[in-house]
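Researcher: Structure for this, please.
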Amino acid sequence: MEDKNYYELLEVPSTASPEEITAAKNALAKKYHPDANLKDGIDTTEQMQAILEAYAVLSDPVKRSDYDRKIAGRKSVMQTFDLHEAENEPEAAEPVFVTYWKASNSLYDIIVESDELIRMKNQAAKLGQLAMQALKHIIILRQSEIPERYWHPDIMNWLLFTWLKNRNYTAAYLVAMYDDYLKKEFKGLEKLRMQNKALHYQRSVKKLLKY
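Model: Predicted structure, token format:
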């Protein structure tokens, strides 16, 4: 199980709802609980620990969001698209969607750093430098015609994976699909939390550009 990610451990897709994740954990816990297997002389302690570790992350919205972003660039998640190959393709009339995805991740790293500096004093010079670095990524994202409220890496990850299934999807169609996904899969406070996170990020981008 060491080579599997948390979604693979729980045998659920990366788009699984909280209810599906809990149900998967419960089903696997019955199967791998040490007490249920000791009578057969099988030690499933390691498997059970891995299942609980995966569930602890995927059942927590904040931890899951961070984990999704960390695995976004892993080869196991990106098997259907070779980033290195894409970088060496002849320049096309429009950059492939992965260019926008990479720009969003680079911008996110800059925004995380700028948010910390904004809370400090006398950092205007450094923030000005970060604003210039951010601008080149913002220009790329604006070329994508993806509205700013979708620039957060969590959303861009979803858009990228969906685009990989059909590279004829336009940016407008992808964001419409995401809105439909958000509406169907998330309710109440969880949906509001995700929307607020995207809005807060959008505001952070605008705040940095003032420098």
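Researcher: Any notable elements?
Model: The two ends are 48 Å apart (CA to CA). Residues 75-94 have pLDDT under 50 and may be disordered.
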